[in-house]
Amino acid sequence: MTLTHLLVLLIVGALAGLIGERLVSRGMPGGLIGAIVAGLVGAWLMVDVLHVVLAPELSLGGIPIISAILGAAIVVLVLSLVAGGSVFGRSLRRY
């Protein structure tokens, strides 16, 4: 793995994680680092574990962008629900 490939992976992970956070209106702890982790884990989950690749021609650094965003949104949503709803970002209840 070259430094360029690593940087591309981190950028794709950050973009997917940030967009995934915005889709579910939740945030990961750790800010940008949490978003990168959510994006990379979501991409791994969708592509390698579940074998769901949406629009494979839209890929960057070997990661399908749409699948990574969807996977990141799922990771953020599941973690926020497991943590009780108010730990990450906004609360589920609206006052």
How would you describe this structure to a colleague?
The protein has one domain. A hairpin with a 2-residue loop joins strand 1 and strand 2 (63-64). 61% of the residues lie in helices and 4% in strands. It is built from three helices and two strands, in the order ααββα. With 95 residues, the chain is mainly α.
- The helix content, as a percent range, equals 55-70%
Could you give the order of the helices and strands? HHEEH
Shape, per Cα inertia axes: globular
Structural class: mainly alpha
Output the radius of gyration.
13 Å
Strand order of the largest sheet: 1-2
List keywords for this structure.
95 residues, mainly alpha, globular, two-stranded antiparallel sheet
Indicate the topology.
Blueprint: H1 3-24, H2 32-49, E1 59-60, E2 63-64, H3 65-82
Antiparallel strand pairs: 1-2
Quick rundown:
With about 100 residues, the protein is mostly helical.
